[in-house]
Structure formats: C-alpha cells, structure tokens
Amino acid sequence: MSDHYFCTDPAVSPSYAQVSTRVWGHDLHLVTATGVFAHGRVDKGTAVLTGAAEPRVDVTSVLDLGCGWGLLATAVALHRPAARVWAVDVNERARILAAANAERAGVADRVQVAAPDEVPGHQRFDELWSNPPIRIGKPAVRALLSRWLPRLDPDGRALLVIGKNLGADSYHRWLGEAGYATQRIASSKGFRVLEVRPTNQAGESTDARE
To answer: How far apart are CA 54 and CA 14, in angstroms?
Structure first.
C-alpha cells in the first residue's frame, strides 16, 4: 500500500474500530481508524513500553511523540492528573482521533494535540514517551529524535520502545554516542525499552549489546 500512517493526510478512507485496554490501572475505551498506526489494536511495542515503565509521580509536562490515536497521551493524563501532555503527530487523522479520545476519557483539558511545528519553541518536557516510526528510515528517525530530545528538562527522561530487529541496539549505541545517558530497562517480545537522559545527568550508555 502506498499510503502510510506517517503521511500528513492519509488517502485511505477511514474505517473506525474501538479498542478497549487497561494501562497503569486505568480502563481505556478509545477509537482507532485506518490510515493511523495500529488500527483496531494496541501494538505490541506500546504494550511492552507501558508494561516496563510509568510516568514519574512529579511530572508536569509530557510529550507523546508520534501519538497516533492517543493511547499514551490519554493514559499519561489519566495517571498523572497534574501533568499537561502534548500529543504530537504529523498525521492529521491521528491528531483528530487523539483529541477525540482525550475528550472521551475526560482529559481533553490537559492534552494538547498538535502538529510538530505547532509546539512552541520554548516548551520543555519532564518526560518524552514514544514508539518511534522506525520504518521512515534511520536518517529520518535520528533527525526526529535529534529535534525533540533536546527539549527535555535537565532532569528529564525519554522512554522509547524499538523493535530489536528494527535496530534497537544500534539506536542505543547512537544515542550514547550523541551524548545521552542511555540504558535498556526492558526487553520483551522482540522489543527494547530505552531510557534516555540528557548529558548533564552523568552516566555512560549501558547494556547496548547486540
């Protein structure tokens, strides 16, 4: 199929499906659509990510990078009532769904849905959560992470989930070489969960074996 979930305006006609799941003790009933990643299901990578970590109790600003239909953004907002969450995606249909799902869950007042260029340049984040769109290619993924990781607060962190067969360990090494303290905090079902911290949090990139 020539149309992909990372297009800004998917050409495929939308077909909707509801997904019910439980994240961090919260029951979610969300709507998905064709033309957006993980139509009709919770993808394995995101399930591994949410099973391996949860937002810190003191977070007040969180970025869901590549939010899709808004599972992570909605779950974070429900789990941490003091947090404001930015749900960012290039896909317009994904943004519409993310906003609607935040509304359904009663957290629309704290979930700001936006295209990448709509996020103010001064905005910083305590945490960044992402299941990156690895299939856009390594140069594009590196450019994406290089754009957003510097937005972390000095004591912030990013949680990334990447398939082992899609280069998780090479991204781990690259993040370390780029100056980020990076460690693998989980490995399950063919996915790695990486915790990435800014350079001022001293520490070496660890456990990046192939």
So the answer is: 31
Closest CA to 105 of 75, 60, 66, 129: 75
Least confident of 26-40, 67-81, 91-105, 188-202: 188-202
Decide: 82 and 106 in contact? Cβ < 8 Å.
no
Cβ atoms of residues 143 and 78 within 8 Å: no
Q: What number of other Cβ atoms are within 10 A of residue 136's Cβ?
A: 15
DSSP letters, 138-174, are: HHHHHHHHHHHGGGEEEEEEEEEEEEGGGTHHHHHHH
pLDDT digits (tens, 9 = 90+) for 48-94: 999 999 999 999 999 999 999 999 999 999 999 999 999 999 999 99
Question: In sequence order, what are the beta bridge partners of 114?
Answer: 88
As a whole-number percent, the residues of the chain with pLDDT over 70 amount to: 90
Contact 193, 159 (CB under 8 A): yes
Average pLDDT over residues 136-157: 97
